[in-house]
Design brief:
The chain has 147 residues and is an all-alpha fold. The chain is 68% helix and 0% strand. The protein folds into two domains: 86 residues, no CATH class; 52 residues. It contains six helices and no strands. Helix 5 packs across helix 6.
Length: 147
Amino acid sequence: MTVPTPEWKFTPVPPEELERLKNDCEIPDMPTQMTYHLRLAPSGKGDYAYTWKDKPHRLIYDACREIERLTVIISLETKLRQLQLKMTEEELQLLKDYQKETEKCWEIAQKLDALNPELPGSFTGYPSERIQRHLNVMQQELNRLQR
């Protein structure tokens, strides 16, 4: 089972703004890019404001897709926990180290996308793909400057 990575079309929101919304609305978990824009739509703000007025059912479909995507992730994490019960201490430590590195990659990808949100594909795809996109742009810029 693969985790779908949909191509949502909205303006990226910096992590600080997501944190502000979380605190202001007393949301227990950090909002996603998607849920941030869905929350703004009924008040006539954000990228989905027009869709809310014109075709609100599309927002329901988008919200359902986000729920489905996150459900797959939770399901995978549950299966992983079940496997962990059968793992040795050494295997568990390796898995924890791997998870930490994965989280670091995700954080790096978020920071890079926030610095260059106009780059096609920002905030979409796996962290390694997102980081590679930025590295490619940096390499192209370096090559251009060296000419």
